[in-house]
Design goal:
2 copies of one chain form a homodimer. The first copy, chain A, is an alpha/beta fold. Chain A has 10 helices and 17 strands. Helices cover about 25% and strands about 25% of the residues of chain A. In chain A, the strands form 3 sheets. In chain A, strands 10-11-13-12-14-15-16-17 form an 8-stranded mixed sheet, sandwiched between helices. The longest helix of chain A is centred in the first third of the chain and has 14 residues. The radius of gyration of chain A is 24 Å and the shape is globular. Chain A starts with a helix and ends with a helix. In chain A, about 45% of the residues are buried. At the A-B interface, strand 7, strand 9 and strand 10 of A face strand 7, strand 9 and strand 10 of B. Strand 10 of chain A pairs antiparallel with strand 10 of chain B, so a sheet runs across the interface.
């Protein structure tokens, strides 16, 4: 605000002809840049870096190889401002950083910053298509950062709970279904609501009538973590990890579902519970979902590495972990929706497709979806929207 | 995680003597840095920037002038890693950025990032004193991002609601008091819970028995904003602004207090309502609090510019806006706590002290506090903790 006020004051003095040449130069140097600037046909990035010798922009649509670094080279102009204009890319939510003499930086002109694991990136939403699903909807649901006692690992942990627009704490008669939504490796309880755009996707789908109003519960699935490391909470290192990450998801039926059902106006049987996750969370969904067939009515597994390995690597023995999954499918074949997806450029795709074939061969009705993309958020946002449209109907 | 795994694998190979010189060099280049590194007597910052010619660190305890820039100069060492070690500063929450050839960047080795208005900064908590109040407490309250209909400006708006550890939605018999807490100019509903450390301060004070369990409600006080601009929500530009910012706070008694009292287990009379704010929010507190003496029982005004101008500039006519505040103090002198504070290096201090004198001369019991610091968060965190200790007792 102070900067804007200064700018307007300087602009007024400029018009009044009361500034010296030096003052005008100072004013030009301090004028805030517009970056990124989106027009109907172009997108332009700008960074003021008069002392730098090599400045590049790395937008996510270019990818991350040496060719992308070359394509992102910016040109130095007046007042030390570096500029690069691209054709306007397809409607999407993109991330980008600048590289200034080899060091990655955010765009100081852009307040829209997103975190992916330990990295922070500037973001830009190109609207007019798919990206519209990721924009704030005027009918927005709430997001709660909830601490709950998790008896399974024995610690207070944080999860995020989305309640849809119109959810009324006081209206105990209106009951909502719940989607339990799990993050991937390197993620945490914050991931789905930031780069995953869960709140915006659900708000928009519900407002358009494409999904039913539902709660979305986003726990932290890292066995030793109480909460996202952005909170600087020391990890609980003495948590027994057992044989794998998936053991941790004993916590879901034991701690999380009971907490949600005690504290929210939700449907308390399997018809009102769905489970989905990406990557590690997709494996947790497969493992936990099939082992608790009486708890969840729909399962969504996005880009699962577990399924990816099942078909092509074979390190996980599904029949051993879920006895009868293939030999006695009637025991498990009770789901309304079994949804499996993977990006076309994700190396996990073959294994996931193999599992789809194996399940279908045993009579399971599996929805299989793929779309362009690797092991990345643009795929998982599409998966979430697609899965949310199908469940609780 | 992938990076850590790679590192451990490389370390194992190093120990086993299986890496070539080139491979060792690659490993050293990619090894993650520790920054900041805190010891009992020092703090060290590190940044890898082999191509850069001038790298500085700007920690908040140095201030922001040319001397600070000089004091922050880093030294280039092996592998292009720049380093700077300082004596360990007093226990506090500090922010810092790096300057790489004149461009400001975050510390890529540090996941603890905080926003102040439009700026993002790396942060470091130096514990062992005051800073301990700003650390996560194991008994943590929840934080809700709540959208509510604000009839006054006519739009859905977002506010944050903190509920203390142990707050139970289902226990309607247990009623909590509520602190309404307002941000300053350039801030928004997100400000108090990030750099303001509201959740951690309340969690720690309540756990220590120094404050009573209370809710804290943090609305957005910018008249045209629906929510923090990090959400990329278009501002509602047609909102009538009236004569000043303070008109907007018609929204507090008309929209916000009724919403909270309809949706939370709270005390519904003035004994259970306090109002406080920093800078612009301090002015809003003074204006709204005195005009609604039957609504709030305690007021906290931190570094208020309005009060700052009252005494020394005199642009705001308190007697005109609140008829009788000085001529008929019995009408207003019903508060349990009137708390006014300002940093010792804040230019607003004289005006604030003058108002304290004027109010005291009319018989108001005013708590006046000051501490080292300018117009900045380290002062307001101390003010919040101090005010929270005094209210609802």
């Amino acid at each position: 605000m102070k900067r804007l006020t200064t700018l307007f004051a300087a602009a007024a003095l400029l018009v009044a002809g009361r500034l010296s040449a030096q003052e005008i130069q100072n004013f030009q140097r301090s004028a805030p840049l517009v970056s990124p600037e989106l027009t109907a046909t172009t997108i332009t990035f700008r960074l003021r870096a008069p002392q730098a010798t090599d400045v590049r922009v790395q937008p996510s649509w270019l990818g991350y190889g040496p060719e992308a670094a070359e394509a992102g080279k910016m040109t130095k102009g007046e007042n030390g401002v570096w500029t690069k204009t691209f054709d306007r890319p397809a409607s999407e939510l993109y991330t980008y950083t600048f590289s200034v003499d080899g060091v990655s930086t955010l765009d100081p002109a852009n307040i829209f910053v997103q975190r992916d694991g330990t990295r922070f990136m500037s973001a830009v939403l190109v609207d007019g298509g798919l990206g519209d699903l990721y924009k704030e909807c005027d009918q927005a649901g709430n997001l709660e950062h909830v601490w709950y006692w998790s008896g399974t690992p024995g610690m207070n942990r944080r999860m995020y709970v989305y309640t849809p627009y119109g959810y009324d704490k006081n209206d105990k008669d209106k009951k909502y279904p719940v989607l339990y939504l799990l993050h991937g490796g390197g993620g945490d309880e914050d991931a789905w609501s930031t780069l995953g755009r869960t709140c915006q996707i659900l708000d928009n789908l519900i407002a358009r009538g494409e999904a039913v109003p539902m709660l979305v519960v986003m726990p932290n699935g890292n066995p030793t973590q109480r909460a996202a490391q952005t909170l600087m909470v020391p990890e609980k290192r003495d948590v027994p990890r057992g044989s794998s990450n998936f053991d941790n998801y004993a916590s879901l039926p034991a701690d999380i579902v009971p907490y949600i059902e005690a504290n929210y106006n939700v449907i308390k049987d399997r018809s009102g519970r769905a489970l989905a996750g990406l990557s590690m969370g997709g494996g947790q969904t497969f493992y936990t979902g099939f082992r608790h067939v009486d708890m969840f009515s729909s399962l969504g597994m996005f880009s699962s590495g577990l399924l990816g390995s099942l078909g092509s690597i074979g390190s996980f023995d599904a029949e051993k972990e879920m006895p009868g999954i293939y030999s006695n499918p009637a025991k498990y074949n009770k789901f309304d929706v079994i949804y499996i997806s993977c990006g076309e450029q994700d190396e996990r795709i073959k294994g996931n497709k193999d599992v789809v074939d194996q399940l279908r061969a045993k009579g399971y009705d599996v929805v299989w979806e793929s779309c362009p993309g690797g092991h990345e958020w643009r795929v998982w946002r599409i998966n979430l929207a697609s899965f949310a449209r199908k469940i609780f109907k």
